[in-house]
Design brief:
The complex is a heterodimer of chains A (about 325) and B (about 130).
Chain A lengths: L11 E12 L6 H15 L9 E4 L8 H8 L5 E3 L7 H4 L1 H10 L4 E8 L8 H11 L14 H15 L3 H15 L13 H6 L2 E3 L2 E2 L8 E10 H4 L7 E2 L23 H12 L16 H10 L8 H5 L5
Parallel strand pairs in A: 2-3, 2-4
Antiparallel strand pairs in A: 1-7, 1-8, 4-7, 5-6
Chain B lengths: L9 H10 L5 E4 L5 E2 L14 E4 L4 E10 L9 E8 L4 E4 L14 E9 L2 E8 L6
Antiparallel strand pairs in B: 1-2, 1-3, 4-5, 4-7, 5-6, 7-8
């Protein structure tokens, strides 16, 4: 399939952003974190909540999540998207929101999320049990993969087998992330972290140790998207959206055709084509680095290095 | 597959056969492709001419992890992705080796284990080289 979405290139801009309660947010609900960050993002854009007539939000636990969010915010959106694709959802919301803005279906879209996965009293163990019924994966669950780490561990095993990638190279990703975190006062973990710390940390699902794995933190985040012409008149310098792409190929790791090639190879191609840029033009990259193998796969799939060369690309502080 | 009583979906049929000790995959009568996990329609061509077939049971370890677990809870265990010789992949575990000894490329053969009347397929290491 080919896309020609260049007419949407730069048609919308992010006018406001905010986070709230990142790290540990004792005593808050997911809705409260979402609403606090939403309020701050709207304020950042120089708008009022009553200006918001488009809503994108998704929840890990609640399947009808846009409804209580609309109710809580007291808004009457004419555009609603509640698609849940995991961590990429809030980037995937961009394209439908841009279409809705361009068609005039709405004029200001609020994209928002809140999570209390660190401090919630309804913990991960209970959620794992509930998922067996709410989100069944009957062909994997009997083998008790400790997911998500085990799914990424399987991908890492394959990358190591095919390309000679080492645990030390995976550890480089965690160390680089920590070094960036040390420059960010809002980051959750800022202690020094060495390659050996990662290699010697408690193993979770071989070859991934606990330091190869995603931090579990609370937080709310939100941004506001408006048409480019309106963004020029708002409070902050607009951040134009030049390209966006979404691709999804599977839910279960056992249904993935090639564990070393992610759907980012397709979504990246779409986004580059829409934006009219390629990896060589990109100076700043922020990848979803939940597990260390993710970063290698995404660097490769988005064209920053060849397939299989992610390990050597990140060596020696490469990222 | 013939069942007794009311018609049922492929998930229940697959599980019922497993619980009788038999591991089945599907083959599409329209395009000829093999299918796993079981589906009501073919994911290769969209056709509905899918039927259960018995695989040879032979396969190769495609990816592997050892999940850490406290000794008191049973200790570390293997989770593998197995590529059957028919060309389909599934999650399972290799039972006949220590978790740390399960390597990518290991040839394996399916075996159904039944506990409390509920069957599941696991694999044992066999001699040979990957197909």
């Amino acid at each position: 399939m080919s896309f020609d979405l260049k007419s949407l290139r730069g048609s919308a801009a992010i006018a406001g952003v905010a986070t709230f309660g990142c790290g540990e947010a004792h005593g808050f609900t997911e809705m409260e974190l979402l609403v606090r960050s939403a309020r701050a993002a709207v304020e950042d854009a120089g708008l009022k909540m009553t200006d918001i007539d488009g809503l994108c939000t998704a929840s890990v636990g609640s399947v009808m999540w846009p409804m209580p969010v609309i109710e809580y915010l007291g808004i009457r959106p004419t555009f609603i998207d509640g698609t849940m694709l995991g961590g990429s959802s809030f980037i995937a919301h961009l394209m439908p929101a841009m279409h809705a803005l361009q068609s005039g279906q709405c004029n200001a879209v609020l994209v928002c999320y809140g999570s209390t996965q660190r401090t919630a009293t309804f913990g991960r163990r209970e959620i794992a049990q509930a998922r067996r019924w709410m989100d069944p994966q009957p062909y994997e669950t009997p083998y008790e993969p400790f997911n998500p780490p085990s799914a990424y561990a399987l991908a890492a095993s394959r990358h190591m087998h095919q390309y000679g990638t080492t645990r030390r190279q995976l550890a480089e990703v965690a160390v680089a992330a920590r070094q960036w975190a040390q420059r960010n006062p809002e980051a959750f973990m800022r202690d020094p972290l060495s390659i050996d710390d990662v290699l010697n940390a408690r193993m979770v699902s071989d070859p991934l140790s606990v330091r190869d794995c995603c931090l579990v933190t609370d937080g709310g985040g939100a941004y506001v998207l408006v048409r480019a012409d309106r963004a020029r008149d708002l409070r902050k310098p607009p951040v134009y959206v030049l390209g966006n792409g979404t691709a999804c190929w599977n839910r279960q790791i056992s249904s993935m055709h090639d564990l070393t090639v992610t759907a980012a190879s397709e979504s990246g191609r779409q986004a580059y084509a829409m934006a009219g840029v390629g990896p060589k033009e990109v100076d700043v990259v922020e990848l979803y680095d939940a597990f260390t193998i993710n970063t290698l796969l995404f660097l490769e799939d988005l064209g920053f290095c060849q397939k299989g060369e992610g390990g050597s690309f990140v060596e020696g502080g490469g990222i | 597959m013939s069942g007794t009583g009311a018609p049922q979906g492929v998930q229940a049929m697959h599980q019922a056969e497993l619980s009788k000790g038999r591991f089945l995959i599907q083959r599409c009568g329209d395009c000829g492709g093999h299918i796993y996990f079981p589906r009501e329609i073919c994911p290769h061509c969209g056709g509905d001419g899918v039927a259960f077939v018995e695989p040879t049971g032979f396969g190769t370890v495609y990816a592997v992890t050892t999940v850490s677990r406290k000794a008191a809870e049973g200790g570390d265990y293997n989770v593998s992705l197995i590529d059957l010789d028919e060309g389909v992949r599934l999650m399972s575990r290799v039972d006949s080796l220590a978790p740390s000894e399960v390597k990518i490329g290991q040839r394996v053969k399916a075996r159904v284990i039944v506990g409390d009347g509920h069957g599941m397929v696991v694999f044992d290491a066999v001699e040979g080289v990957s197909a």
